[in-house]
Structure formats: structure tokens, C-alpha cells
Amino acid sequence: MGRMHALRLLLTTAIVLAGACGCREDEPAIQSVAVADTVREPVVAGAFYPSDADELRDYVSGQIAAAETTDLGGHVYGLVVPHAGYEYSAHVAAASYAQLAGADVDLVIAIGPSHRVPVEGVALTDAVAWRTPLGEVPIDVQVGAALSEAASHIRVDAGGHAREHSLEVQLPFLQVLLGEFRFVPLSMSDFSPENCQMTADAIAQVARGRSVLLLASADMSHYPAYEDANRTDRMMLDAIASFDPAKVRAADAELMGAGVADLECTLCGLGPVLTVMGACRQLGAEHATVITYANSGDVPIGAKTGCVGYGAVAFVGPERSEADAQTTEEEAMTPDEGELNEEQQARVLELARSTVRMYVTSGKTPDAPADDPALSAERACFVTLNKHGQLRGCIGSLEARQPLGRAIIEAAVSAATQDPRFPPVTSAELDDLHIEVSVLSPMRKVESPDEIVVGKHGVVVRQGMRSGVFLPQVATEQGWDRDTMLTTLCLHKAGLPADAWKHDAELFVFTAQVFGEPED
Q1: pLDDT band at 307; cut points 50, 70, 90
Q2: Cβ distance 79 to 314 under 8 Å?
Q3: Whole-number Cα distances in Å, 508 to 259, 435, 452
Q4: Closest CA to 396 of 435, 361, 370
Q5: Which is nearest to 124 in space by CA: 45, 22, 181, 203?
Q6: Which residues make Cβ contacts (< 8 Å) with residue 253, sequence separation at least 6?
Q7: Angle between helical axes of 245-256 and 226-241 (0-180°, round to 10)
Q8: How far is it, in rounded angstroms, from Cα 52 to Cα 132?
Q9: CB–CB of 509/458 below 8 Å?
């Protein structure tokens, strides 16, 4: 990954850690840590879990063996797992992980809260492996790069992981259960709806077609008395079980405003839970099942005051057949037929720019290229003009009716001079324009909105004489989920009722190869 740089040598430091949740300083345990090169060393081994490999493996194996498996009625797309010290929450974590027995998982994308360092957007690790006493777990750098490409707010930030325990404590369970697997750790402290939705969309886009487990690392209520912890956590688990992110946020707001004594949060991993829930919904999960619950007052070393809650939840959907999984993986990994290579992309962009410049200054257009079969094939396309990061014009065609080269010329002229939302581009603006081109696949009608994949599909809505279109990149750029995208498309682009997509309107999808001029 181009943005990945080597971890710099960190000075050995003493970190005060707490076993019950890791974000308070009572019951301290001291752990020295030195991280060098590109392998992240464990920072809570010996504090949150055993540092001896044999003891750790035996402990984790015993916890998993003692956990009861639940008939979840389908494929496990994601799990919610606590991240406290093992003496407090390992039995709850094991109840989640026990559901993976026999599962075909070779990639784990895990999201945890950043307890100590504020993270802007979402933090990728800059390490190529994470080490525990059980050995090294390789980081899937390519998947990390794909996530960053899908959503620019997901980027490398070593500080978001350097001293964080919420994902490290998950690795020994995964190592015992899965053996060899690849890992993508993500850390977040911004739990806003926008950040969670954009991250969920990017994860779903990248995870589709892979043998992947999505993991949300989250403890529950922090520091109320035992009975209050039980009541608060049960309400939050009911909200999670609804499989509705809006209900989870509503329950969180209600409980935080209810005056529960000493309640500091309902979910210290609220953002990770909502993100994983959203991504699992897009991947095919249909319901959430609460597996078990306990809090720190239920274990021998715990107390009935200052409790921390722990919940185990699975996000479950229909099993995919092996053939379906293989087809989806091939669709996700294989470039669309007819994609332009880098040289052809550069040529198309230059054609669009020269067209805008020539037409604005002289009213003429260049000749369409005839020496490249890719530019001579009939293709639909859009040309988008931006100025200082703001849209300045976007026009194109949804159906292929002429060679791509000629279509680019016509779309470039139209975007510069005929977009009814803007005045025509002037010669004084030419050097401030940034040009982006979208080359479209043929459209196909979908029978259900569930077939629409945010970030992958452009969408056309049509009812009677009214229609509207969004290119694939629009929803991702705006941070919309599928329902918001379709509602906005109907209301603001097609002039239809906001819920027309739920009723009689026809929906069509297409994919697009989108590329633009290099940013200055």
C-alpha cells in the first residue's frame, strides 16, 4: 500500500491498564512495550491475557470448549465481542467465537474503539503483522488499500493502534479458532452516523465475495451499579437485536438521558457495532441474535458497583451456496470486460480536456480518435467537471449509441456549456477545472432494491415520463446508505414521491469505470 510506512521505533513505556474495560485506572497492571519495524508487538499481554503461549492457548481453548453453541439459523456475517481483560469477559467472548466452529473464514475485518487517542475518520494500521504470544498474524495490506481507496476517511494512522487493546485481545481467540487467517484492524473514535455509514459501505464493498468475518469489539455499560447495568444492557441488547441502527442510537440516547447513576456510556464500541451491523446488512445478514450477556459483577474478582457490561451478538443471514460465493468473488475481483487501461484512461481524459478548452475558446471540437478499438467501441459515458472541489457540470448518456471517443467529446461539451444548473464555463475557469470520466456498463433492470450495492452500482429510477440517475460514486461521496440514495434520487432528481422506489417505480443499475485527472 503506497500510504503504508514502516513503524518507527517507539521508546519503551509503562502503560497503566485496567482489566475490566481498559479505560479506567483502578486495579492497575503494568506492561512495557517496544514496537519496532513493521510488526506490532502486544501491549496488553500479561495484563489483559496470559503472556505465556502455552497458558494462553490452554485458557482460550478451555473457554471456547465450555461455551455453548447456538442454532443461529444461517451464516454468521459478523460478531459483537467484548474486549475487557480475560478474567472479566473471556467467557462472553468465547460464546461469540464458539459460533465460528467449522466456519470457512480466511479474512477478519475487525473494528474497535480507540480508547486513548482521538482518531480522525478510521485508522488503518501501518504494520504488516500483529504479534501475540501465539505468533504473528499477517495484515491484509491489499484489503486495507482497497478500503482506503473506497473511502478516503479510512487511512493509515499508527497512533490509533499503538497502545490500543480493543482489537489485540481478540487475536488469541481467532488464532486458536481459525489457525491461519489475514487480519485488517480498524480503529475509530468518531461514532457519528456519517462516519459509521461511510465505513460500513466501504467494508461491504470490499468484503463482498470474500470468506470474511466482520468483528465489532465493544463492551457495554460503564460503571453503574449491578442492577442498573443489567437493566441498561438488556435494553441495548434488545435494540441491537432489532437489527435497526436507528433503534440502537435511539436506545443509547434514551438511556444516557435517563439519569442512571454513574452511567458513562451504554456501548464503548457504539460506532464499531453500528458499522459492522450496517456492513452485514449490505452483505446479506437479515437478523441479529443475542447469544449471551454478563457483567463484571458476575465474576469472582468483580464487584456489584462500578460494573462494566459484556454482550455477545451474531449478525446472521442465509447460507450462500459455494457456487454463489464463487460467482460473487469472481465479480468482485475480475475487472469488467472492456475496461480501459491506464494509457487509454489518460487519453480519454486528455480528449475531454482538449474538447472543453477548444470549444470554450473557439466553438470547435477535436476529431474523434479512430486508431484505438477501445475508443471506437460504442459505450455510454459521463463527463464531470469540478472546480475547487465543487461540481461545475456533469452530463452524459446512459445508453451506448456512438463510439466512446465521440461520446466523450459530446459529453464534455455538454457538461461545460449545457448543464442547466450552471452557467457555461468561461475561458478564465479552464485552468481551475478538474475532469472526471465515468464509462458505463449496459443497464439492467432489478426486481428488488436489495440487489443494489452502494458504491458499486449507479442507479436509474423511472416512472411514467419521469426519471433520474445517480452515478455509482455519488452515494459514497455523500455518505448515503441505499435507502437514502434512492429516496434522494426519487425526490430531487426524478421529481417523484420520495418513496416511489418502494412502490411502482422501475429501478435499473449499471457499473462504471471512474477515473479522473491527477489532483494537484
Answers
A1: very high
A2: yes
A3: 49, 26, 9
A4: 435
A5: 203
A6: none
A7: 160
A8: 10
A9: yes
Question: Could you give phi then psi for residue 352, rounded to 5 degrees?
Answer: -65, -45
Per the listing, cell 472492456 goes with 338
Alpha carbon of 131 to those of 22, 395, 479: distances in Å? Answer: 19, 51, 34
Give the sign of the dihedral formed by CA 394, CA 400, CA 404, CA 409: negative
**Residue 470 in contact with residue 453, Cβ under 8 Å?**
no
Task: Give the C-alpha distances (Å, rounded to integers) separating 376 from 365, 373, 405.
Answer: 17, 5, 6
Closest CA to 328 of 470, 212, 183, 467: 212
| Each residue's pLDDT tens digit, 346-368 | 999 999 999 999 999 999 999 98
The number of angstroms, rounded, from the C-alpha of 22 to the middle of its chain's C-alpha atoms is 25
Angle, CA 419 vertex, CA 415 and CA 420 arms, to 5°: 175
- Measured between alpha carbons, how far is residue 288 from residues 58, 203, 227, 276, 398 in Å? 30, 18, 25, 11, 39
Q: How far apart are CA 316 and CA 1, in angstroms?
A: 32
d(CA 16, CA 31): 7
Domains of the chain, start order? 13-327 (3.40.830.10), 336-440 (3.30.700.20), 442-514 (3.30.1490.150)
DSSP code for 168: G
Distance CA 356, CA 517 (A): 14
Question: pLDDT: is 49 or 446 the higher one?
Answer: 49
Give the residue among 17, 15, 24, 27 at the shortest CA–CA distance from 302. Answer: 27
Relative to beta strand 506-510, strand 444-446 is antiparallel
Q: Are 93 and 312 in contact (CB under 8 A)?
A: yes
Which tens digit of pLDDT belongs to each residue from 172-226? Answer: 999 999 999 999 999 999 999 989 999 999 999 899 888 999 999 999 999 999 9
What is the number of H-type helices and E-type strands within the chain? 15, 21
Query: Could you give the CA distance from residue 318 to residue 84 in angstroms, rounded to a whole number?
Result: 31
Cell numbers that stand for 152 in this block: 478516503
* pLDDT beyond 80 at 20: no
- For residue 310, name the pLDDT band (cuts at 50, 70, 90): very high
Q: Which of 377, 380, 362 has its CA nearest to residue 416?
A: 362
Backbone angles phi, psi at 355, to 5 degrees: -65, -50
Per-residue cell: 287: 437478523
Q: Tell me how far apart the alpha carbons of residues 29 and 155 are, in angstroms, rounded to a whole number.
A: 31
Q: Based on C-alpha coordinates, what's the Rg of the chain?
A: 26
Residues paired with 122 in a beta bridge: 154
- For residue 307, CA distances in Å to 116, 232, 256, 290 come to 20, 11, 16, 20
DSSP string, 152-213: TTEEE-THHHHT--TTGGGHHHHHHHHSS-EEEEEEE----HHHHHHHHHHHHHHHTTS-EE
